[in-house]
Amino acid sequence: MVFFEKNAINFLSFKDRARRELLSCLDACPGTKALVWDDYLIGPFSLVAEYSVLQEHQVSRMFTLEKSEFPTNLDFTSMVFLVRSELKVIKKLAKFIKKAGTVQKSSNIPKLYVYFVPAVSTVCKKALIEMCPSADNLVEDFRECAIGAIPLETDLLSLELESSFRDLYLDEDPSPLHHLATTLNAIQQMYGVIPNIYGKGKYAKQLIDMVGKMGKDAANSEWNIASRFDNLFVIDRNVDLITLMPTQLTYEGLVDECFGITQATVRLPADKFPNTGQSSKTPAETDSGKKDAKDKKITLNSTDELYAEIRDKNFSAVGPVFSAKTKFLSAKMGERYSAKEVAEMKEFVAKMPHLLALKQSLTTFMTIAEIIKPLVNNDDFLESLEVQQSFLSGVDTDKIHPVIEQLIARCEPFEKVIRLIALQSEINGGLKPPVLTQYKRDLIQSYGFEEIVTLNNLEKAGFFRTTPKKWFRVAKETLKLFVGHAEDGTPKDFSYIYSGYAPLSVRLARQLVHPGWKSIQDVLDAMPGDRVEAKQKVADHLRKRRNSIGSTMSGSDEPPLVTLVVFVGGVTYSEVSALRFLSNQEESSTIFYVLTTQMINGSTIIESLRETMKPSIL
Amino acid sequence: MANFTDNWSPFGFDTYYRKFELYQMGWQKFNVDLSEFALIAAQTQGGNIAVVREDRKKTPSITDPSVYVSTALIRPNIVIFSSSGRVVSQFVWNSGPLLQLGWSSSDELVCVQEDGRVLLYDMFGTFIRTFGMGKEASDVRVVDCRIFDNGPNTGVIVLTETRRFFVVSNIAVNSVVLRSMGEIPGMTTFKPSCWAVVCQDRDIQVFLAKESELFVVDKSSHFQQVPVNLNEQTRGFVAIAVSPNQKHMALVTAEGIIAIKSTEIDSDPYCVFDSKSPTIQPKQLAWCGNSAVVGYWEKAGSHILLMIGPKKDWINYRFDSAVYLVPEMDSLRVISRDAHDVIQKVPSVTMQVMKVGSMAPGAYLLEACREYEALSYKADEYLKLVKPNLEEAVSQCIESAGQEFEVSMQKLLLRAASFGKAFLETEGLSEKFVEMCRNLRVLNALRSYLVGMPMTWKQYEATSITALLDRLVNRRQYELAYRICGYLELPSQEGAARILLHWSNYKMNQRNESDEVLAKAIIAKLEKTPGIPFAECAKNARALGRVRLAVELLERETSAQLQVPLLLDFGKEEMALSKAILSGNSDLVYDVILHLKQKLGAAEFLMRIRNNREVFALFVKYCKQLNPKMLRDLFFQEDWHSEEAFTFIPESYEALSIAEQITALQNAVERFDHAKDEFNKKVTEDQIKLIRHQIKLEEKFPGRKFIGLTVRKTLENLLRDGSFKLADEFKKDYQISDRQFWFVKVDTLAATAQWEELEKFSKSSRKPAVGFEHFAAAAAKNGNRAEAQKYLLKVEDDQRLRCMLKMGMLEDAAEWAAKQKDPVGLDVVLDKCRREDSALAAKVQAYKTSLGFA
């Protein structure tokens, strides 16, 4: 009997959920509406509902808290604010509503509704009223728009919490854990109780405890859904900061490193793209009128077959794919000349849309590759890559690195330099105090005194250490983290992702599924943070049928092991690629899904820990 | 063969009414005589009966003090019986003069006083709440009132002595709105001889008779005369009754004429019937369902019910004692001294199955079954007759079972259905059968003498299961309700959990039980059922002043979101805090923090939150956004000098003058010093020094900008200007490392084309801190190849190739690699030149071949 198809679980169902939630929120407000966005939310919500859908639900105008003025022409019945429940956003909201207070008196008054995403927060409500007392009267109702996780891909769910890393590791605010637990609860409601739970790291333990507590309640509410996931693996980002530091070298990873991917879209200078005349309007494009005409927005997801094929490949390996596709395309296009019979022509015409789409995406993704190429083929890039590789292979990690010194002297991008230092620190198991002091002094002299705060933050979040924790060397051996030069073409190991370095987090996930953690217990325990292995009770009839739990070696009639990997604090595109690589391997009967608080890379994380201070005298 | 139709009476063409007994009244032993009661109020849908004995006080009439009139009841005893005549409760009325009793749709006893005050009691005589019918009513006395069903709600309407109507259309909590009805001109001078309320689609109308004229008024103060065409003169109307569906009304004239008409205003009576009892007025007029009206006359000690149909069909029923009529949506209940009867139109399915000579399939099936049970061969013949329509027959038998009150009849019909079912494989019939059995089991339980809720099938169908459970809960029939929930497999939230919540509330009300005993008893019961809203339970306990119990219950609540705010309410801050932290929901933790902040003094508050790391961290985050001042106090209190120091750094950037800025930085230095944080102290001191230094530099070099620049940038500017001496001093002052200094100096000199200085610098030290490759690269980068070449010669051998490549000197690099016999180097060169320069590539290939590496 077949219980499972590969890919039976599709996280895109969370999109419908989110969309329903959003629309029901809108419908709960009377009449025509003006939407006022917390700027950050525009991105995630554009994945949930297009502007046309919002219009169908009587949204007539849109504003943003940061970029819009309070409108003078109030030609709508309700004003709906969608804001994250975070104090810094509430500050902006207070400012905006204050303006409403001055305008409203004179004209017919729209009703104000404040929706907190993803949950009502009393502290935010109180803070708002404290900052803007008139809000108490002006705001008709405070409600919640319970949109938690947003699917970025069929196998990737993200809470899109912009500051989850900072919250957890700097401010020690566990809210992201709570949101994750809620989402895991929703996942279990949809896909059944997950029987085996593993975790590594302090926050992993905390999250698992929360899920367990909710699970107790869940048992009460009598879920009756067969388990679709076998394992839950929670990894605390703090356990594997190393992987954030080297430059990601997959196609997608590099796009992210160079231009930054937000909610599966990237903005690139439009003039680099051949004008194809067709405007592929993505939902977000119509969303707000403030787009630069200079930027082209490109949606990056696996609905595009070509992108699905190249996204997870090492950048150096996408060239052959492009050339194969080009050849294929020109051969196919050539068929139109050879087609003589009407039937043949008809067949060709039928294939046309597919071919044209392929042509379109080939153009797009080759153009992106062209834009990236000069950025990665220059000496500076190669030089820092070399430093990364030498650190990863364990060379020269205990003294000041001349290249880093030089980068500092040249004021190269701060994040780039910090990533190298942090990599060195992590791999060396902490830096010697004089080495760290020298780096810090150099950094402050080059980047300015204000970075004293950033450096303090980075130290608190564990990016630099002086207290030695020498577990990496052992881990590197046991887990084969550095394979050295990886093979091109069809790699057998996901270390190709970083041209030789296999992400620690993914190695742990792989090891977990097969052959299990037993053989690496010593290494695991040497790593910082708790190790959790727990089981959740699943009713017999809801259990997945298999001969013996944990056996992946048996024949193809066994359903594949399905594992949900939860990254507390964020995940990189490369790690997702590595997990996909494992899921797609022919002989493997294991599938990975990913849930994360946000998509990150080393630079975005460092940026989030940075304090921006500009002297006000100047 | 017993006749099923013994109690059927024909009523026009192919219509029968049946009358059967529900209960022998339990009140027989009290020697109850209904005629002795001043007030009787029986609830519809088989509800309770409240009675008050005649005990009216006679008071002098306002108009003529010599005449005593009987008015409201002063201190009567109110007794509440179940439908089966069991005493539910009794209590002494000790409020104002009582005028009228009635029941609300949520089982409250509605008592209307003469002063227009309405008091609500539960059926156990516990006072619930009260509201008034307005000032006018209380000022002038209410003379009459009606308590009426208004859809799912209950309304009250009073008529004052001033002949004005006031109405509350929904007496539920929070929806009591008083309205006055329209007035009829000249109304103050007459008393309506009879009146009734019609409410349709939330619209309330009062029909009232002024002798022979009928009027209608509504809430919009609209009034109108209603023509009633009786074909003959009348002295006036004496009784009026509206049908349960509010569509028809019946009027009785002083001459004993009964007229039935639609409640639509402009419609003629469709039935005018002479009761032939012109002298006596009916004691009660009530509808039996929506298709017949029943009048109750007492004539010389005999009690007669006369039922009249729209087509002038009629039936007489005689009773030996006084009766009370309770109209129902599909029947009429007749309560008397001895028994509780139902008069009901025989349901059509029952007619089909049980009517004598019926040829309906159900009837045949029933016969077949009876013959089969009697072991008669005739069973087969009947079965053959019904075979083609067996499905319909089974359905009919199942449905008609539902219509029976007699269990033996239900069983008989179900047996017939089951018998027929055996010959069928139709889907759904079995479900229907099982469904009916379940429902009947519930119905029979409700109808039992002890519970006393004689609901008909139609009434049962019209009631939602939750409403039904509510009615049981109101009767404190917790166990039955709980069992029904289990039996019908209702989800816990809607069923068992809700019942248990009510039960626990009832338990808590038992004053003599201690909190401990109660907690044990309640929790033991509740814990077994999932989905119990413990928070709500705790709230109830708290409302009853049982704080300990409330806390115990709250402990069991699984949702922290519900738990934490209540714990705060109960003053259990510590527990609230720990539960909030455990939940991981920061917002809840903030709830507690802000609550504490408000409750405690600043000092105590700060002391309180220091004990917990998570709480402290969250509060720090909060302060960072909203209250930086408090944050500093907090760090100060905790002796977290380093943290405190860092709070001064943003301040230094926000400062509006350099003096302020330096003060802030000095504060930071002081704190770093306390913290023994040498590095940050030094760096901050350096910053102060830098600012002062930069001021001097700006004085020295007018027009040049130094303030606000980084150390490196300042150094670079000095080097650009050629102030090398100052630069050297600057390096020393700020402990710029040699390598940093060299990098900056080389880059700056090259960028500003100070080639001589660069050369001088390259020779200034025997051991340069940076390699010559940097000199070469810097020169090349700034476009001076000749200079670059010069330094290239000095570059160490192992760096030479790399340096050449960096400078783009591919050809030289190729030669150098060839000379060094370095195949890897050659490959690198090859890799670089593959596209741009095919000639060179060929050359490199040639080198490789010649070296034997190809």
Report on the structure:
Chain A has 4 domains: 11-147, Sec1/Munc18 (SM) protein, domain 1 (Rossmann fold, 3-Layer(aba) Sandwich); 152-240 and 504-542 and 559-604, Sec1/Munc18 (SM) protein, domain 2 (Rossmann fold); 271-278 and 291-375, Alpha-Beta Complex (Syntaxin Binding Protein 1, Chain A, domain 2); 379-469, Serine Threonine Protein Phosphatase 5, Tetratricopeptide repeat (Alpha Horseshoe), CATH 1.25.40.850. In chain A, the strands form 3 sheets. Chain A has a 7-stranded mixed sheet, sandwiched between helices. In chain A, strands 2-1-3-4-5 form a 5-stranded parallel sheet. Chain A has a two-stranded antiparallel sheet with strand order 10-11. Chain A contains 24 helices and 14 strands. Helices cover 46% and strands 13% of the residues of chain A. The model of chain A is unreliable at 1-7, 277-292 and 547-555 (pLDDT under 50). By secondary structure, chain A is of the alpha/beta class. In chain A, strand 6 and strand 7 form a beta hairpin. Chain B has 854 residues and is of the alpha+beta class. In chain B, the strands form 8 sheets. A 5-stranded antiparallel sheet of chain B has the order 1-2-31-30-29, with no helix packed on it. In chain B, strands 3-4-7-8 form a 4-stranded antiparallel sheet, with no helix packed on it. Chain B has a 4-stranded antiparallel sheet with strand order 9-10-11-12, with no helix packed on it. The radius of gyration of chain B is 49 Å and the shape is elongated. The mean pLDDT of chain B is 86. At the A-B interface, helix 4, helix 5, helix 8, helix 9 and helix 16 of A face helix 17, helix 19, helix 21, helix 23 and helix 26 of B. Chain A: Residues 272-295 are annotated as: Disordered. Chain A: It comes from Hypsibius exemplaris.
Tertiary shape of chain B: elongated
The biggest sheet of chain A, with number of strands, parallel, antiparallel or mixed sense and barrel status, is: 7 strands, mixed
Total helical elements of chain B: 33
User: Order of strands across the widest beta sheet of chain A?
Assistant: 6-7-14-13-9-8-12
Q: What global shape of chain A is seen?
A: globular
